[in-house]
Amino acid sequence: MSHPTAGTANPEIVKRLRRAIGQLNTVVAMIEDHRECAEVAMQLQAAEKAVTQAKKTFIHEHIAHRFEPGDTVSRQALAELHEISKYL
């Protein structure tokens, strides 16, 4: 059985991750320029939030596609759900 993978991620997930990459690049430049700690911390927080939201969206989509309403859930499927849910 085929399961959704990173290759099937929606454009919103990719957009969030690209935003996080840009924010991290900004953080590196800010550190190299000796910017204020609070400014750097704010950018790090923004990057962290973007990654967290992308992760949640990705996992929720996987679960929604993997566990359709009315399906019988196997032990293997429950084990998979347990494994992925620890990343939420």
Descriptive account of the structure:
There is one protein chain. The protein is mainly α and 88 residues long. The protein is built from three helices and no strands. The longest helix is centred in the middle third of the chain and has 30 residues, at 37-66.
Helix content: over 70%
Report the sheet-strand fraction.
Answer: under 5%
Structural class: mainly alpha
* Name of the CATH architecture: Up-down Bundle
CATH superfamily annotation: Metal-sensitive repressor, helix protomer
CATH topology: Methane Monooxygenase Hydroxylase, Chain G, domain 1
Largest sheet: none
Question: What separation lies between the terminal Cα atoms?
Answer: 24 Å
Low-confidence residue ranges? none
Number of helices: 3
Oligomer: single chain
Query: How many domain regions?
Result: 1
